[in-house]
Design brief:
alpha/beta; Urease, subunit C, domain 1; TIM Barrel; 9-stranded parallel sheet; 6-stranded mixed sheet; 14 helices; globular
Length: about 375
């Protein structure tokens, strides 16, 4: 039986995030109609977020010691926290039972939905077992997950069979960095991903730029972080037409620096946003937007697009990312009359600068 729903409010419409007052008609999960019409609803109808880079296995450990305490200051060390194979998170993941890992990831998926996210890309550690654990978590979820697996083995003689298994069970590969694995293995992984038409993504330039050239030599489909990229690096990325996913809160917490997002945008690089390690941050995209707007000084509409349409575009999620006739209805209804948002003049700026999950009335995914 066909189902139809009409929703009134201020609509963040189309690829330019234009504000129109009116209603949308959703039929069987598809946006069939968008019309302008005066109405008294205080609701804001917005596209849901795309969290373009996560490590949700980290959900098993949410309050790590971030570094050595020196007086009143914590000296943070990114490699001790997350670098494979001996960083804190990897030691914890290796000793966590699969049932506990899956349950923790399932909780984060529920949190994503409740905070307005409908899709995410996960760099899934743990080889094929890690992929299956996330697939188990996704079985009971409405969230769309793009799983990017990672080899557990490090020896070139053992890698070919594992790569085949990973690439048959995931949407692609999500590699740690060009300094964390033998380049011969990375080259084999990249070639096999091309042959099987799978995504190849890699961290680069997070705490240092000394892995950027090697990462670019692999011609990846997606780059993560590029925090330390210089002007020449970004020109190369732009020429190669490689999108970048930035993780502002994560980079801020680990003190590796602030990604040159404005320069990325000035070079017409496609930029999306991720919350990165759940160990360090909740999967709350509102917090990423506020940081990008207030600290980076990026235009509010640009920030909103980075967290919605750009994420959908980079992850290849067709017919989503914006409210448009014919698109799948991945939308959240936000209370523009909440104690937090009442009085805002521009719904996009209001959501970007001060929106919170508790402003959401409902999520349709």
């Amino acid at each position: 039986m066909s189902s139809e729903q009409t929703i009134y409010g201020k609509i963040i419409y189309g690829p330019e995030a234009e504000i129109i007052e009116g209603y949308i008609v959703v039929e069987d999960g598809i946006i069939k109609e968008v019309q302008e019409k005066k109405n008294k609803s205080g609701n804001i109808i917005a596209p849901c977020f795309v969290n373009a880079h996560t490590h949700i296995g980290d959900s098993v450990y949410k309050d790590p010691v971030l570094g050595k305490v020196k007086g009143h200051y914590v000296e943070r060390d990114l490699s001790q926290l997350v670098q494979p194979p001996h960083g804190l998170k990897h030691r914890i993941l290796n000793r966590t039972p699969r049932s506990k890992l899956t349950d923790a990831m399932r909780r984060t998926l529920m949190d994503m939905k409740n905070t307005g996210t409908y899709a995410f890309a996960d760099f899934r550690e743990g080889g094929i077992k890690g992929i299956h654990a996330l697939k188990d978590a996704l079985e009971s979820s409405e969230i769309e997950g793009m799983i990017l697996g990672r080899p557990a083995k490090k020896e070139i003689d053992d890698i070919s069979k594992e790569l085949e298994e990973l690439l048959k069970n995931a949407e692609g590969l999500g590699m740690s960095g060009a300094n964390d694995m033998d380049m011969n293995i990375l080259e084999i992984a990249r070639q096999r991903s091309l042959e099987l038409d799978r995504t190849f993504a890699i961290h680069a330039g997070e705490s240092s730029r000394n892995d950027i050239d090697n990462a670019l030599s692999l011609d990846p489909d997606i780059l993560i972080h590029m925090t330390q990229a210089n002007t020449q690096d970004l020109k190369k990325v732009a020429d190669m037409d490689i999108p970048i996913v930035v993780c502002p809160r994560s980079n801020f917490i680990t003190e590796v620096g602030m990604a040159p997002v404005l320069e990325m945008l000035d070079n017409d690089i496609k930029v999306a946003v991720g919350t990165d390690n759940v160990m360090l941050n909740s999967a709350n995209m509102f917090s990423e937007m506020e940081l990008l707007s207030k600290i980076f000084g990026i235009d509010d509409r640009q920030v909103f697009m980075m967290c919605t349409l750009m994420g959908a575009t980079i992850l290849g999620l067709a017919k989503t990312g914006s409210i448009l006739e014919g698109n799948t209805a991945k939308i959240m209804i936000i209370n523009g009359d909440s104690n937090n948002l009442t009085g805002i003049k521009d719904p996009v700026s209001g959501i970007v600068r001060r929106g919170r999950p508790d402003d959401i009335l409902s999520v349709m995914i």
